[in-house]
Specification:
Structural class: alpha/beta
Shape: globular
Strand content: 15-25%
Oligomer: single chain
Number of helices: 10
Length: 304
């Protein structure tokens, strides 16, 4: 159970800066940590929170930052390599929705999935913070996108983010809808945080040489795989996490994200999809909103 409590202000170590937090973003990884299934990496803060925006103590720079923990607090110590300048044209609170959501989308679409212009991409759980970010990033790269949600009321959020096809999974058959619009074996990259429940369907629509990138196991961690079909399609099944990567690896990824994507927030090509903003005193309600899957986009906590 998450709770609000007083603790000491963190002291930055070598290669870290202290950030006075303006806002922090909720992620399903927070819920997994609360449930005891996703502890922080060794040596990282056990305070919840994987992304923040705020002001660097001393220089006063407006920043946002990717974290392995510690973000849901008034202050956080951040490795320098995981700090990004907050986009000038973006509200500082909303900037808290960039690092984890868009970082995850970038790493898994670009670095792991190799998405380029003309690709066809399937994104499951498209109304989540990561899902809506991934739709936007894929479209920015020139890809066509089909996105799924299990909630009919969230379908407009998918199309607003740029999805070419929005599918209500559970009521509509995802494979049938994709094949009706794009034909058989048409998907180059699948971004899948669901896992076992969607794996067979992912493989069924995968193009020759396609990639399935697994981010989480919301629909089960163990499932059957048609290895023969995977071989026939010369497909690649990729497991990916961001939090557990080393600080050195994260610094490389953050630097690449800054070069290739961050500027799109100032041009308006990318925008943070914010579902709701809560004060710290209502953090429990914020987590419950995510737990009940009522959000479409990022839930933020405003610490100002």
């Amino acid at each position: 159970m998450a709770e609000l409590r007083e603790t000491d202000t963190p002291v930055p170590g070598a290669g870290e800066v202290l950030v006075r937090v303006a806002a922090s973003g909720l992620n399903r990884a927070d819920l997994s940590q609360i449930a005891g299934r996703y502890p922080p990496p060794l040596g990282e803060s056990d305070v919840l929170g994987l992304e923040v925006s705020g002001i660097v103590e001393g220089p006063g720079e407006r920043v946002c930052a990717l974290l392995a923990g510690g973000g849901h607090a008034e202050y956080v110590a951040v490795p320098v390599g995981q700090v990004l300048p907050a986009p000038r044209k973006l509200d500082l609170v909303h900037a808290a929705g960039i690092p984890e959501a868009y970082g995850t989308a970038f790493v898994n679409l670009v670095v792991e999935g190799g998405v380029t212009s003309g690709a066809r991409v399937l994104i499951h759980a498209g109304a989540s913070g990561v899902g809506l970010a991934a739709i936007q990033v894929a479209k920015l790269l020139g890809a066509s996108v089909v996105a799924t949600t299990r909630t009919a009321s969230k379908l407009p959020a998918l199309t607003a983010a740029g999805a070419d096809i929005a599918v209500e999974a559970g009521r509509e058959d995802v494979r049938t809808e994709i094949e009706r619009r794009w034909g058989a074996d048409a998907v180059d990259v699948v971004l899948d945080p669901v896992g076992a429940a969607t794996l067979a369907g992912d493989l069924a629509v995968l193009a020759i040489g396609g990639r399935i990138v697994l981010l989480a196991t919301m629909g089960g961690a163990r499932g059957e795989l048609d290895i023969g079909l995977l071989m026939k399609k010369r497909g690649r099944l990729i497991g990916s996490t961001l939090r557990g990567r080393s600080r050195a690896e994260k610094a490389v990824l953050v630097a690449r994200f800054r070069r290739e994507l961050l500027g799109a927030f100032d041009t308006g090509a990318l925008r943070v999809s914010v579902d709701s903003v809560f004060p710290p005193e209502q953090a429990a309600a914020a987590f419950q909103r995510m737990r009940e899957n009522r959000n479409a986009g990022k839930i933020l906590i405003d610490w100002r």
